[in-house]
Queue: 2 jobs
Job 1
Amino acid sequence: MLTLVLGGAASGKSAYAESLVLKTGLPRYYLATMQVWDAECAARVEKHRKMRAQKQFETLECPLHLDRLALPGRGTVLLESDLLKVMTACTEGTLADTEVKFSDGAAACVILASGGYPVAYEKGKPITGLVDGQLPDEPNVTVYHSGTTITEDGQLVTNGGRVLGVTATAPGLPRAISIAYEAAEHIHFDKLHKRTDIGMRALKALAEKE
């Protein structure tokens, strides 16, 4: 059986997936794909590795080239990646016929959150700027909905803390970040909140390598 658990960063998906694995009784492996950019990232990776070890998980670090990773022959593996197409092919038995490509470009996602999140926030705020859930005339931008709903009269409104994920793609990370923030400015709802430092640590790490 294949169980696919998806969710945004810090959404609780990892803890939920781990709870499912703990019930199997099989050897436990954690496939972690976070790329370490700086000391803060390294500390977070080490912290999570120790936490998983307490639950008898062996962590396999593989931020790049998943196709080259040698997985254990038996056990339960958690994959921290949105590989829906590949996972669907696995369930349908068509993986051998599925082409998997990795882009050389970059992507950046800016979360539009409800004011007061993650403590207390209101729901039902009308959202404007979107057409059929997306930004018109933005071919390199996809808006992912995680905290929205549609009212009986057809109005798109907020329905959670993390409301929308405005995701942009571009040949390089600086441009992807810029496009994502520019696109986010076209979306509005009462008490909208977003971080202004998305991707800054990655950009700093890239600059230090040059």
Job 2
Amino acid sequence: MTEITRVPLRPIAKGSLTRLWLGVAAAVALAGGLAWAAAPHGVEVKVLAEGTGAAPGPDDVVFVKYVGKLASGEEFDRSRPLPPQLQGFIPEGMPVEMNQKGGMIAGFEEALKDVRKGGRYVWHIPADKAYGATPPPGAPIPPNADLVFDIEVTDILTRPDVERRAMMLQQMMQQQQQQQQGGGQTAPQSGAPRDPGAPQ
């Protein structure tokens, strides 16, 4: 018969196992803390009013009223009111296309994906998701500034719907311009003689 070689094991000193596990836990905590500190932080969204309907899709246009502020509360930008001639054709607020590349800061684009029509939000956008070290020339935004946006979503429309409304608006404006150029004259009825110099 073959004999198995026995290896003598020394008993573990009292408290060694506890120290080993404490060391492992400290190493894991340190690694987790370093990973958290090195990771870019996302946009913080505070929902003031939930809104209704679905979130915008990649081919939608979101209309937003907004106020942009620095973390200190100093306002640097705001949406403009809708001119009276556009009321009824397009919703209030600035139109933002969902799939525009490079047209908005990363944090704004990230937060915009989860809005709803009628929703009101406050977005805290960290500098690395805003303008970082290079804000736009002449802007009142300092380098590496965190930004805060007060947002109200007035509507979410499909791009074809927005284009259709824009065409209707353009046609209406052309008709008004023609009427102004013609001095308010109406077109002659069919069969009536036409003035060759009159606008068609």
